[in-house]
Amino acid sequence: MRKPTFILILLCLLTSPAMAQSEDSGDYEKFNAPWRVYLGGFSPSLRSEISINGDEVTPPPIDVEDELGVKDSDTVPWGGIAWHISERNALEFEWFSLNRNGSVDIVSEPIEVADLIIESGSINSVFDLTIGRLTYGWSLARSERMDLQVKGGLHLADFSASLQLVGAVCDVSLGEMPPGCPGAQSPPAESDEVTAPLPHFGLSWAYAITPNVSTTLQVIGFAIEIDGIDGSLIELDADVAWQPWQNFGFGAGLRYFNVNVEGSGARLDAEFDFEYYGPVLYVQARF
Question: In whole numbers, what is the pLDDT of the chain averaged over residues?
């Protein structure tokens, strides 16, 4: 699915008026169950840029998918648990992990990584991202069929990147500059890693269309600087769930993430910029 089409579908869902109420005045006990556990898969399309700073220079960002041969789509496990503690208070935890490897056998143009410039040769890379989201929700308005919440919490984002360079590698800090850099005696590597707690605030709206079908829309985001690290994020979610049985059902939705983390200090001397968007499919239990 192309990004413009995906964003259009998601925005239409997020801005659509409430669906017409069902004439069935049945029991909405499933929708109001205090616990919800869900597990499935997330299939995002990916756009990523990284920049690992050196002691001497700050290189331009590297397009991870185009320049380093890392695949631009994947399917990974995804899931979470939600607890409606009381009529007004709720907690939710959601998690997914995305680990990718890439390899470029021939570098067509020089690529800068920290103080190193690879003029020709190959790059083997590893990029890992794990995101856990812990969110508290307070119901501004709630009825048997609807729940409008204001939300706040943390995205716990763990980023790591490692690049191994083989070939004609120049070390700017030693005064070696292209063209014609000597081949490295042993393959040099550059890496960086950070775990960043990124706070977020937002709104969610859940509505039971029928006793067995419900929809949920959510918008959360924030930008902050903590201990020399700048971080920003935005997340847009849209889901439809079908629960034909008392405790078990199915769901499908769309997710959009944009996460940027940048630092220039001891904890992080790099920039990570990730954008993911795609569908989720899952099974769920309410009890």
Answer: 85
